[in-house]
Amino acid sequence: MSDPMKGALRCLPAAVPATEPIPPATENLSYSMLLPGGAYCAGLARQAVDGLLARHGLADLRDTASLAASELVAAAYRFTPDREMALRIRWQYDALRIVLYDQHPAHPLPDEAERCRERRSRSMWLLAAAVGDHGGDWGLAPALTSEGGTKSWALLHR
User: Fold this and answer.
1) Do 86 and 33 meet the contact criterion of CB atoms below 8 Å apart?
2) Which helix (DSSP H) or strand (DSSP E) does residue 154 occupy?
3) DSSP track, 39-106
4) Which helix (H) or strand (E) is 143 found in, with range?
5) CA–CA separation, 47 vs 42, rounded Å?
6) What would the pLDDT profile of 80-99 be if each residue is shown by its tens digit?
7) Among candidate residues 72, 53, 73, the one with its CA nearest the CA of residue 63
8) Fewer CB within 10 Å, N side or C side of the chain?
9) What does the alpha-carbon distance between residue 132 and residue 68 come to, in Å, rounded to a whole number?
10) Three-state secondary structure along 107-130?
11) Which secondary-structure segment (H or E) carries 141?
12) What is the mean predicted confidence (pLDDT) over 130-137?
């Protein structure tokens, strides 16, 4: 009987020499995580952002960014409870970008969609105040998927 692994071994790439791991730095801050959508996810988001910013040299943004992440998650939970959401934290173009995608269903009529957007915007007053005090910005937009969804975000500068 022939060796079944004989041909497979020829397909393996050559060994890559070991290099030092890249340490966390502001420039390589880029994380995405899925959250299951429970009410407790706001706290998880707050803790994750706090820890990531501390490790990547952005401790000066920790309080505002942690609050922003938890407010984005809390708003998504209020409008789409118990549905999975995706949180993205990234340093890009000299700013911290926190983006949350949720599964809020698309509204069939434009008037309904606008009323829902206004209601959600009003519910994010704490996010607006915190981000505004830090010279940042925030917003909401429909997620560009066939199922609908909302993309909400906060932008913070140093």
Assistant:
1) yes
2) strand 148-156
3) TTHHHHHHHHHHHHHHHTT-GGGHHHHHHHHHHHHHHHHHHSTT--EEEEEEEETTEEEEEEEEEEEP
4) none
5) 9
6) 999 999 999 999 999 999 99
7) 53
8) N
9) 11
10) CCCHHHHHHHHHHHHHHCHHHHHH
11) strand 137-142
12) 92
Instruction: With residue 152 as reference, give the H or E element that holds it.
Output: strand 148-156
Q: How many residues does the chain have?
A: 158
Give CA–CA dist 119/58, Å, rounded.
32
Q: Residue 17's pLDDT band (boundaries 50, 70, 90)?
A: confident
Does position 11 have pLDDT exceeding 80, yes or no?
Answer: no
CB 116 within 8 A of CB 75: no
pLDDT at residue 123 tops 60: yes
Task: Give residue-wise pLDDT tens across range 139-149.
Answer: 999 888 777 79
Distance CA 99, CA 72 (A): 8
Q: How far apart are CA 67 and CA 49, in angstroms?
A: 9
Question: What strand order describes the sheet that includes 137-142?
Answer: 30-35, 85-92, 95-105, 148-156, 137-142
- Measured CA to CA in angstroms, residue 15 lies from 11, 12, 41 at distances of 12, 9, 41
CB 156 within 8 A of CB 131: yes
